[in-house]
Design brief:
The chain has four helices and six strands, in the order H-H-E-E-E-H-E-E-H-E. A hairpin with a 2-residue loop joins strand 4 and strand 5.
């Protein structure tokens, strides 16, 4: 009986197989009842086996397809993750700031208590003058000026006599007696203060 079933029927869907089985029953209605029942039983059994096998095959195929799709979805999700690049920070180099060097300022010297002589000064006896000198006497004659210079030298002072071209009280050309002379004003002031005990009119002369 089975050899009369076309081969292509085995590749049809389970619904088509069931309908084919029903057609088998109709086609063989002329056979006797026992043979027909036997054939029908065999056909129905075969159809059920085919249907079950097809269902299992489809279930297996569906499961495989689902697992494959799930795996692809997971792979795509892993591959599409956005990686935010982290910018590497380089080493920060701190350059120390060096302050500019302080300007050297020349101290301002108070010359309110010093005098200058216009017209030039000439040393006639003794060492050259320094910036600040202590004047203790003024004379019209050189001899009188040199007499006082000798007295001061005997007292330990490095005195000298200078001639100026000043005109005082109608007289031009005076001889000044210098008791001491210094490069700095402070020393000259100290010496002047000491000499004032004997020479009250002592004053400071500034020469550039």
């Amino acid at each position: 009986m089975l050899e009369n079933i076309p081969v292509e029927t085995w590749w049809k869907t389970e619904y088509e197989i069931i309908f084919d089985c029903l057609r088998i029953r109709i086609n063989y209605k002329n056979y006797n009842t026992n043979a027909m029942k036997h054939s029908l039983f065999i056909g129905l059994t075969l159809c059920a086996a085919v249907v079950l096998t097809g269902c299992k095959s489809k279930e297996s195929a569906y499961r495989q397809a689902y697992e494959k799709a799930k795996a692809q979805e997971m792979a795509g999700a892993n591959g599409s993750q956005t990686v935010t690049p982290v910018e590497e920070q380089g080493q920060v180099v701190v350059t120390p700031v060096t302050p500019p060097p302080a300007r050297e300022t020349t101290p301002v010297v108070d010359h309110s208590d010093v005098r200058t002589i216009a017209g030039g000064i000439t040393v006639v006896n003794g060492s050259p003058l320094k910036a600040y000198s202590v004047v203790v006497g003024s004379f019209l004659t050189q001899a009188n000026a040199e007499g006082l210079m000798s007295t001061l030298q005997n007292q330990g002072y490095a005195s000298r006599v200078v001639k100026t071209n000043e005109t005082i009280n109608g007289h031009t050309g005076w001889f000044r007696v210098i008791a001491s002379s210094y490069d700095d004003k402070a020393s000259a002031v100290q010496s002047r203060n000491q000499l004032k005990a004997n020479y009250s009119g002592a004053w400071l002369l500034y020469t550039k």
